[in-house]
Each structure stands twice: as C-alpha cells, then as structure tokens.
Amino acid sequence: MSSSLSDFPLRYLRTPEAAQFLGLSDRTLEKHRVYGTGPTYKKLGGRVVYAIEDLQAWANCGTVKSTSDTGNPPRPAHPKYRLTQPRAARHG
Predict the structure, then answer these.
(1) Which of residues 79 and 63 earns the better pLDDT score?
(2) Which of 13, 65, 66, 85 could staple 89 via S-S, CB 3.0–4.6 A?
(3) What is the per-residue pLDDT across 2-50, written as a single tens digit (0 to 9) for each?
(4) Where are the domains of the chain?
C-alpha cells in the first residue's frame, strides 16, 4: 500500500499559513521574526517553517485576563519603540 501526503499529519507551516493560523498578516509575522519577538521557527532547506506547537505556545504567551494583568513576562519591545538612552540624557 502506498502513502499519500494526506496520510501525514500537518506539522509545519510556511509563513503565509502560520500567519493565517495566528490571525496576523504575513508581513507582521515576518517583522516579528526579524526583531526576535515572534514564535520559534526552523529553516529547512533555506525555507522558514513553523511548528504548529510553537505557534500555539507563542500565542499562549499573550494570554491575559485584563489590561493590568502582569502574569506573563512582556515580549521584547519592537526596536522602533526602544529608547537608546535614558530620557534625561536625551534632553540634557
């Protein structure tokens, strides 16, 4: 009996499918990858792929109960919003 691709469970998603899984745009997921703020990924033959378990784990990191919930560690700030030096030093 021969196997077809449909016999294998889907384990890895490329960027467009991973973004859709998370409800993000492809570009947003790419930016998270560049800035190191996104889900863990693998490179297979030069292609970026995401394990479904890694996508789910990353999404679960954002689970909160209210806007004041600090139960989860914050993700690294996007470089656009990082301060390179303290405010006092910038205006001094």
Answers:
(1) 63
(2) 85
(3) 556 567 777 899 999 999 999 999 999 999 999 999 999 999 999 999 9
(4) 9-63
Per the listing, tokens 């033959």 go with: 45
Q: Quick one: CATH architecture of 9-63?
A: Orthogonal Bundle (1.10)
Q: Is the pLDDT of residue 72 over 90?
A: no
Nearest CA to 48 among 37, 62, 34? Answer: 34
**pTM of the model as a whole:** 0.65
CB within 8 Å of 16: residues ≥ 6 apart: 26
Token pair 């991973």 in the structure block, residue: 18
Q: Are 48 and 38 in contact (CB under 8 A)?
A: no
Task: Yes or no: say if 38 and 75 are a contact pair by the CB < 8 Å rule.
Answer: no
